[in-house]
């Protein structure tokens, strides 16, 4: 399959990163999949409010800000997912009674903000209205799965990568590093009920996808080693258990290793400068 940007189904968009881009933060990083860009900043360990204080470890606070508008439930979901990935990796016990604050800002499509004024139902945008559906071909109209319900998976993967790089830039002690990539299942044109798996979907491909998944892998001593270990999976849309089985795991293992290698090489180059 050749995609609109002429990539193969298992090809990532060009990767880019930069660190120490914010002068008033203890650490910061910008990560991009192609033109999808995310910036993350870290403050701390710093003084913590009494209500957040933990006697045996640092409190980790994560805030995700959309490109525009107010953060909605999807932002809170992303924050919870990031917290579950990063908490076991960061050596929080080294800094008791303190606060480590991670802020993530997307510079791309506002997928973590409310895009409709009166509705937050993700299925509403996927199902065509009765007035417009009559104008569509029958093959497009009669679909067993809604489309466009899995937006923002590539952005979420970029958030994970940017967060890891910001922690490294802030010299926060960690057991290892967490990197992620996204995959989507899109219908095959002209073939009924047939879907194809693509790596690192664009926003346009996410609109057409019936389901999408984010796989996060950790690399480090005791947390996956050099080969990596799957530490998080986030799935959206309509899919079967066969679709998220061994084939995807193998593909994502290879793709996340590639992501990690690219980021490591780029980070070494930046440090050398």
Percent of residues in helical segments?
Answer: 25-40%
Q: Which stretches of 5+ consecutive residues score pLDDT under 50?
A: 113-143
Measured distance between first and last alpha carbons = 40 Å
Q: Would you count the extended β strands for me?
A: 9
Q: So how many helices?
A: 6
Give, in order, the helices and strands: EEEEHEHHHEEHEEH
Indicate the radius of gyration in whole angstroms: 20 Å
Shape: elongated
Strand order of the largest sheet: 1-2-3-5-4
Indicate the mean pLDDT. 78
Q: Strand fraction band?
A: 25-35%
The main β sheet shows up as:
5 strands, mixed
Briefly note the structural class of the backbone: alpha+beta
Write the layout of secondary structure elements.
Elements (H helix, E strand, L loop, with lengths): L14 E5 L7 E7 L2 E11 L12 E7 L7 H14 L12 E8 L23 H4 L4 H4 L11 H17 L6 E12 L7 E5 L3 H6 L2 E10 L4 E13 L8 H27 L1
Parallel strand pairs: 4-5
Antiparallel strand pairs: 1-2, 2-3, 3-5, 6-7, 6-8, 8-9
Description:
This protein is an alpha+beta fold and 273 residues long. Helix content is 26%, strand content 29%. It is built from six helices and nine strands. It has helices at 73-86, 130-133, 138-141, 153-169, 203-208, 246-272; strands at residues 15-19, 27-33, 36-46, 59-65, 99-106, 176-187, 195-199, 211-220, 225-237. The strands form two sheets. The chain has a five-stranded mixed sheet. Strands 7-6-8-9 form a four-stranded antiparallel sheet, sandwiched between helices. Strand 8 and strand 9 form a beta hairpin. The longest helix has 27 residues, at 246-272. The radius of gyration is 20 Å and the shape is elongated. The termini are far apart. Residues 113-143 have low confidence and may be disordered.
